[in-house]
Backbone:
C-alpha cells in the first residue's frame, strides 16, 4: 500500500499545529501516546464511547468526512484476555495499577461482565478516583496490607503498572498472593517481568502484553484502511523488533 507510518515528536502545546499538519498532509490516520492521549480530545469533537469512558484516545481516523477518535487499547486488551473470557465472567479479577492502561482494562472488564474487581495502586487516592467512575461493577480497593496478606479471592491478576519495565524491578504482586490456579496477565511486553516469572515459577500460566499491542494496532489499521489486518505478519514484525 502506498502509505507511510512514521513517528513525530509533538510538544504538549503543539497538538493544534499537529492537526493542521495532519490535514495538510492529507493524513489517513494517527496514533497518540503519552502525554497526548487525553489532550487530543480537545481537538477532535467526534469520539467513540470507549474514548468517553476511558477519557483517553490513541487513534485518529476518518469517519466519512469527519475526523474521529477511538481508543483501540480497550479492544486490544479484550483480545489479550480472550482465552479467559469465561473465567472473567465468573470470578473476581485483581487489577494492579490505576493509570491510563488500568482505566482501559476496567472498561473492557466491565464490558466482559466481570462480577467483581480488586483494585490496588501504589497511590491509593488514584485507585479511589478511578473506582468512582465505574458504578456498574463492584470495585474493592485493596490496601497494601490486604495485598500483602492476600486475604481475598481471585483467579486472574493483571499488572497494569509500569513496574517491570526496568530490569530488576520487583513484581507488584507479593509472592504470598501467587497461588497455583492463578493466571497472570502483564501489559508490559517483550520481556519476562518478575510478575510473570513468579507466576510461571509456581507452575501457572502467565502472558505478557504483546497481543494487546498487536491488536490495538490491528484495530487502528482496520479503521484507517478498511482492510482486514494480517495479524501473523504484524506479530512476526513486532517480535523481530522487540527481540
Ligand atoms: P501511567 O498512566 O503512567 O500509570 C502508571 C501506573 O504504574 C500507575 O498506576 C502507577 O502508580 C504505577 N507505578 C509506576 N511506578 C510504580 C512503582 N515503582 N511501584 C508501583 N506502581 C508503580 O501508565 P499507563 O499508560 O497506565 O501504562 C502502564 C503500563 O502498561 C506500562 O508499563 C505500559 O508499557 C503498559 N501498556 C501496555 C500496553 C500494550 O499494548 N501492551 C498498552 C498501554 C500500556 P501511581 O499511581 O502510584 O503512580
Residues:
Amino acid at each position: 500500500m502506498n502509505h507511510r507510518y512514521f513517528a513525530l515528536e509533538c510538544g504538549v502545546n503543539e497538538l493544534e499545529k499537529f492537526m493542521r499538519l495532519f490535514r495538510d498532509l492529507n493524513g489517513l490516520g494517527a496514533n497518540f501516546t503519552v502525554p497526548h492521549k487525553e489532550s487530543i480530545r480537545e481537538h477532535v469533537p467526534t469520539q467513540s464511547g470507549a474514548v468517553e469512558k476511558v477519557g483517553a484516545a490513541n487513534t485518529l481516523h476518518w469517519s466519512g468526512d469527519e475526523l474521529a477518535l477511538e481508543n483501540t487499547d480497550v479492544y486490544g486488551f479484550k483480545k489479550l484476555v480472550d482465552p479467559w473470557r469465561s473465567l472473567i465472567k465468573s470470578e473476581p479479577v485483581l487489577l494492579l495499577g490505576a493509570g491510563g492502561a488500568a482505566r482501559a482494562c476496567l472498561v473492557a472488564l466491565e464490558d466482559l461482565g466481570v462480577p467483581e474487581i480488586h483494585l490496588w495502586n501504589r497511590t491509593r487516592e488514584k485507585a479511589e478516583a478511578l473506582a468512582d467512575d465505574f458504578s456498574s461493577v463492584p470495585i474493592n480497593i485493596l490496601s497494601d496490607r490486604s495485598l500483602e496478606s492476600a486475604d481475598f479471592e481471585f483467579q486472574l491478576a493483571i499488572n497494569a503498572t509500569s513496574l517491570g519495565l526496568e530490569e530488576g524491578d520487583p513484581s507488584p504482586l507479593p509472592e504470598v498472593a501467587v497461588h497455583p490456579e492463578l493466571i497472570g496477565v502483564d501489559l508490559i511486553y517483550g520481556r519476562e517481568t518478575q510478575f510473570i516469572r513468579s507466576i510461571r515459577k509456581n507452575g501457572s500460566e502467565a502472558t505478557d502484553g504483546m497481543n494487546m499491542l498487536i491488536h490495538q494496532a490491528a484495530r487502528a489499521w482496520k479503521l484507517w484502511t478498511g482492510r482486514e489486518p494480517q495479524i501473523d505478519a504484524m506479530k512476526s514484525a513486532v517480535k523481530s523488533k522487540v527481540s
